[in-house]
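Bug #77: duplicate submission created two jobs. Keeping one. Sequence:
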Amino acid sequence: MKKKIFSGVQPTGNLHLGNYLGAIKNFVELNNDKENECIFCVVDLHAVTIMQSPKELRNNIRETVATFVASGINPKKSVIFNQSQVSAHSEAAWILSCVSRIGWLNRMTQFKEKAGKDKEKASIGLYLYPVLMAADILLYDATHVPVGDDQKQHIELCRDIAQKFNNDFNVEDFLKVPEPLIKDEFSRIMSLKNGLKKMSKSELSDLSRINLTDDKDLIINKIKKAKTDPLPLPLNKEELNKRPEAKNLVGIYCSLTNLKLDESIQKFSGKNFSDFKEELSQVLVDKISPISSEIEKLLKEASYLDRILEEGREKAHEIASKKIKKIHEIMGF
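Kept job's structure:
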């Protein structure tokens, strides 16, 4: 049976290596599998849970589409669209928020992390974000959702919402209960300056991340300056786990080369970081530079990117509008 895949990326600009290895690389592999039906969404409604410049948001939506295509996602095979252009997402989010329970949302650890100590100043949108995410998924009868470990809790909530709706309205299996797709042996990509912090565009130093728009020289320079420790590379996993910067760089190498962690440790154990960094830089340049060049080229073709979004919107609207119509019938609207 074909897998129906749904996932999305926020158009917040400056997509980086963490976004690529954590999501987009996996999207490409899923897109290339003939057994999958894929829908990839530029989740602009999620992005506005914090203030966005309208001009920058429009540019970032195009940049996200350019990154999808430059990385290898075929817009003729997969649906690519931006969320705000399919009104069923907003409508389904409201309906499902009436099914969801405050206790469920209060357990969401990502809200606690993003809202910080002063939760009273956080937007309601940030609090309800997981319900909108559930609507995104459930509108398309997705069977599988590729996510990182940090999003697994949101998929569990999505499953709870689907099951409660089905039970409340006595419509068994109407909202499909999706499964998370989590890559085995995937290492969460951390800052190049602090192995305990997630790689992020919000970190002040550009040296903390590899942007997907970085050229060859920038990539080499950033890896050269990436924080390490004075010891040679570790001999085993136990030692690696105690050294966050070493673990991060080895994890990046594994994710780019598809080598298992044990294989990479065996290859580099006891070697100096300078030798390892040289090889890691080359692997990064080989993978990221072509993507960077293609993004630059595609961004000059705004009409082409807009056409991809419009064609994707039409396909997504056709699917989502049918689902929302059935929801209306079930609920008595």
